[in-house]
Design brief:
With about 260 residues, the chain is an alpha/beta fold. It has one domain: Rossmann fold, CATH 3.40.50. It is about 45% helix and about 15% strand. It contains twelve helices and seven strands. A seven-stranded mixed β-sheet has the order 3-4-2-5-1-6-7. β3 and β4 form a beta hairpin. α1 packs across α12.
């Protein structure tokens, strides 16, 4: 049985801090000595650009070495892995043509499990301790694939008046996925872009704490300009500026995620 944990980061609402959270948790895990594979499942390429400059990211997107090519060909995902500059941290990059993935999935046999099949050889080899998947901000066949391939799901939620919008739809979709993949669980909700001076921040926390059978992580991520500077440098903030507030918060969140994921 594989000891590799597959964790997806998903929210159907854009701007939730999903990719930033996935990027920094992955880097923080590698800094703790864990072996990590990150999968960019979004056509916006933001996770890829979190680690590579734009020209390199676009080169991967146009090549035959990205997640879209792997899914189309239903091949061992290990063949599509590229190393990042961080030791123990690899990536399967995205493609700018990911909008066509629903079309590619539709005629396939057991189409909800194509990504799972591509991941099986990687998990069986035991190369990685964690596989993290950045899902696009949609609900459809591709996100269903991502959820069915996951052991756990982290839902980043922006602490804003609009942050909770659509969360009920996300829960309903995850419930549908659990019928196909019963082992998959919601690991927790990660609050991002928090501004403690704002009244709606407290309202967001109260609402999330009131959700039944859904954990809200104790460590939340506050607004920090260091995150934007790190993104501009194609480097996760936990490595870009280790002493920044957001780097410390993401490091603490990562340890909390590890604690519950390794249950």
């Amino acid at each position: 049985m594989s000891l590799t944990k597959v964790i997806s980061f998903a929210n159907n609402k854009g701007g939730s801090g999903k990719t930033t959270t996935c990027s920094n948790v992955g880097c923080a895990l590698s800094m703790l000595g864990k072996r990590v594979l990150m999968i960019d499942g979004d056509m916006q390429l933001n996770l890829t650009i979190s680690y590579f400059d734009e020209d390199t990211a676009l080169g991967f997107a146009k090549s035959g070495k990205n997640i879209l090519a792997a899914v189309k060909e239903e091949r061992d995902l290990g063949e599509y892995v590229v190393p990042t500059r961080f030791e123990g941290l690899d990536m399967v990059t995205s493609s700018s043509l990911m909008s066509g993935i629903e079309f590619e999935l539709f005629p396939k046999w057991q189409r909800e499990f194509v990504l799972s099949k591509c991941l099986e050889p990687v998990k069986a080899r035991g190369t990685y301790d964690y596989i993290l998947i950045d899902a696009p901000p949609t609900l459809g066949g591709w996100v269903m694939n991502i959820l069915c391939a996951s052991d756990d799901v982290v839902i980043p939620v922006e602490a804003s008046p609009w942050g909770l919008f659509g969360l009920a739809n996300m829960f309903d979709f995850i419930s549908q996925a659990k019928r196909l993949a019963p082992r998959m669980e919601i690991l927790g909700i990660a609050v991002t872009k928090a501004d403690e001076r704002k009244k709606y921040f407290k309202q967001t926390l109260e609402t999330l704490k009131g959700l039944e059978q859904t954990r809200m992580f104790e460590n939340y991520i506050r607004v920090d300009s260091a995150i934007e500077w790190s993104q501009d440098s194609s480097c996760p903030v936990v490595a870009y500026k280790k002493t920044s507030r957001s780097a410390v918060e993401y490091s603490n969140l990562t340890k909390e995620i590890m604690k519950y994921a390794d249950r």
